[in-house]
Specification:
alpha/beta, 3 domains, six-stranded mixed sheet, TIM Barrel, 26 strands, Immunoglobulin-like, globular, 21 helices, Rossmann fold, eight-stranded parallel sheet, 728 residues
Length: 728
Amino acid sequence: MGKQKLRSIIQKMTLDEKIAQFIQLATPFYKGANSEGEITGPMAEMGITKEVVQNSGSVLGASGAKEIMDIQKEHMKENRLGIPLLFMSDVVHGFKTIFPVPLAIGCSWDTELAERSAEIAAKEAAVSGVHVTFAPMVDLVRDPRWGRVMESTGEDPYLNSQFSKAFVRGFQGLDLSSDLLRVAACVKHFAAYGAPEGGRDYNTVDMSERMLREYYLPSYKAALDAGCEMVMTAFNTVDGIPASGNKKLMRDLLRDEWEFDGVLISDWGAVKELIPHGVAADESEAAMKALQAGVDIEMMTPCYVNHLKQLIEDRLIDETIVDEAVMRILELKQKLGLFENPYRGADEQLEKELVFCKEHRVAARELAAKSCVLLKNDNVLPLQSNQRIALIGPFADSGDLLGPWSWKGSRDDAVKLSDGFRMKIDSSKLLTAKGCDIETGTEIQLEEALNAAQKADVIVLAVGEHSGMSGEACSRSSICLPEIQLELIKKIKQLHKPIVTVLFNGRPLDLHGVIDQSDAVLEAWFPGTEGGAAIADLLYGDVNPSGRLSMSFPYSVGQVPVYYNSFNTGRPKGDGEEPYVSKYLDIPNEPLLPFGFGLSYTSFAYSEASLSAITMTEKETLQVSVKVTNTGEAPGEETVQLYIQDLAGEVVRPLKELKDFQKVSLMPGKTAEVTFELTEAMLRYHHADLSHKSDAGMFHVYLGSNSQDVIALAFELVKEGKNHDNDD
């Protein structure tokens, strides 16, 4: 069905039918749903009629091949023009097979595995009837107080962009029309949702347009360049205007400048929230501003269906804008093949065969191991099979390993840490005790833990945040472990036995009272369905840790936001005790653990760093090389990171910027030469006038294992005439 046939459908639609395509309603609104009729009260409160439901365009949160086919079947019976429904859901880091949370996936620095995780999530969702996933979330994050940092891949625009593209490729594949085992992706939250003041969710975002374009927009653009079909608006304001009513952001930038012609959907209730934001007096004005801004689908509020018709009749909105939005929605349905096959990939038999299958769980285990980051190891790890282990803590025997946005995942299916240990050692060598709960504890729990610890050779503490402490609306002013867990660690430390701490959490934490009390620390995040097995693989050395932090760990919450690619000041802190410099009186300026940091069971040495030339022109490239040697006793994987610094820009430039990275696997004693290609385009940035270009002058290039431990080289960019101007 071509565009002309879609135009023919739109010509046959009444205005009410067109407007109904714009509303997204939850599953219980629909005939055929397992929960049909449970929403009668809210339906009346919203002013939603049966006619609106039978003409509506999309469904939120339905899953399961049978239920979705039943809903679609009933809908097709009643929809006058036979326009099928779109089924959309939050398939963020897995459908039934749950992968690590995205922040953890970011720490893998492995875009191929990330793409594979999205492909598996898409496959399980597609056979279960889902057409669209509200992912990837690519908001750049710098403040760990914000609960949704777990849903991002971190603080760097380049790394986030690489993962953004990988997730889109994994979800959508090469051809949505023919590949029924893929789903359409929806990048979110446009824009800058990850920068709320104070780290408080839904709060004000206020930054310059240059900052927005330089750091926060690239990962969204990367998703669109990869073919992402949909965009979701953010809850926050951008330059004083909420995103869902922000014409400059959505029409001028997204639609016109970036030429995005796909579907734009609001987040839950965001159109109506223009009223409490204070930019709309009522639902009618909210509807008018959102549609004028370019929002096609309104999620779970009725401003469009209750007010657009009157706005058009009053000539406050032109019906051509409505027709354009309807066309975008119908084009997506056509691209998914729904007019020919309204049930698309929904298949009860394939659902039984593919969802949570062994192959998918193997992939989840591999990615979970790659996502963990070894933060400390004073010759305690790997553990030995003949050691007696006391596994202590609220996560010792917990299935709460999936993390937020694990919609169809089950804690009962998760491999617990205690199960992982039993895969490695005989049960007689494993003692377990809870020690305390996440935020409370008893003397009996503590006594049981101390008794178990006294009988052990090594103590493994499994501590952290429960999944409800991270995610949407889960901001925290303190990012320490709960006091009861810190007290448990302190008591265990008094036994003077080796302590390995495994952390389960959805954000970087203030690790005082943890890292200083432990002989080894493994950051496991929320590792997903196969978490316990993957962690045991790491602790016993069957897999060598290779994760690298994609978000800095602050020394104290008083530093945040703290991030590696910060600017210098006119009075930078040196090594001395100068009084009038930019510093804290009571803590270091630097984070406790920097971006890119991560340990291994082996060690790597960098040598013979070199440049192919010490000058570079606009049309030339530089080869940047370094030799990396495995100087330890175990095979290992190193992530070699390339950073640059523009020493004198038109505007202040960061101290370092990640521009590339490569992974290299080496056997003990072996050396590999790693070479990067540096181009003029990699040196461009947004100037004061928002032009995107490079400056002639001196640059530093840094090579290393993280953003702090680097080898520095220097080169000069030589240009003729004016600065090169190019927005590519």
